[in-house]
Amino acid sequence: EAVPENHLIGPRTSQLIHSGRKQLLLRTTSGSMEFKMKGSDNQEKLVYQIIEDAGNKGIWSRDIRFKSNLPLTEINKILKNLESKKLIKAVKSVAASKKKVYMLYNLQPDRSVTGGAWYSDQDFESEFVEVLNQQCFKFLQSKAEAARDSKQSPMVQRNSSFATSHEVWKYICELGISKVDLSMDDIETILNTLIYDGKVEMTVIAAKEGTVGSVDGQMKLYRGVNPVIQPTGVVRTPCGLCPVFEDCHEGGEISPSNCIYMTEWLDF
């Protein structure tokens, strides 16, 4: 039910939520939220609730203004106050280099905000990606060479030359070359670039439930190969090998117009 903006909130039981241009809704809230916001006024509680609802993807101040219908000067004052209390934090987003999103202080930002393992302070770590690319390929090469040296039957050699993404992930983690925690998905992204480059092939096999590295009863296996023919023109372009291809768009942090690798490829 709509209530006037100056209606008092019951302690530990309700929270003002903006609904429409000149009305607020009253809803129940948790005691923990009320405890954190003890001593705050209604406007500050409203902004906090909007930020909390945004989760670990955060929310821009512009959207906070739209949802709360508060003046920008008042929102900036509230945001600064909540930050000083360490209830919220501002996080730079790779989606827009000059904008920050706000989220609760104890949340880990979503990959869509930070860019994941391939970014540091909004900058794409191309050298780091290249090192991972080389080390993953080196591991698969060594496994293939060990299989060939085993002098077993060709079929056994071929099967033993494959490695799971979990094995590659474990090898990279043991090298200690990454300052951030890499996930299996991160490693599979790198392995995909090697597949596009014609250096690695992948096969999918059935796996028992609970097997390390398996998903939905299936497991991906990778092996290093010597390309028989050169990759196609599309794959040889930086786009064919780029692990953040899906994040590349005009006007973004990663854009075709400012891609130094595309420039080098065209000059070559």
From TrEMBL:
Short name of one Pfam family: RNA_pol_Rpc34
Entry-linked InterPro entries: RNA_pol_Rpc34, RNA_pol_Rpc34-like, WH-like_DNA-bd_sf, WH_DNA-bd_sf
Gene3D superfamilies: Winged helix-like DNA-binding domain superfamily/Winged helix DNA-binding domain
Signal peptide: none
A single Gene Ontology CC term: RNA polymerase III complex
Highest taxon of the lineage: Eukaryota
Subcellular location: Nucleus
Family: Belongs to the eukaryotic RPC34/RPC39 RNA polymerase subunit family.
Reported function: DNA-dependent RNA polymerase catalyzes the transcription of DNA into RNA using the four ribonucleoside triphosphates as substrates. Specific peripheric component of RNA polymerase III which synthesizes small RNAs, such as 5S rRNA and tRNAs.
Listed PANTHER family: RNA POLYMERASE III DNA DIRECTED , 39KD SUBUNIT-RELATED (PTHR12780)
Protein known as: DNA-directed RNA polymerase III subunit RPC6
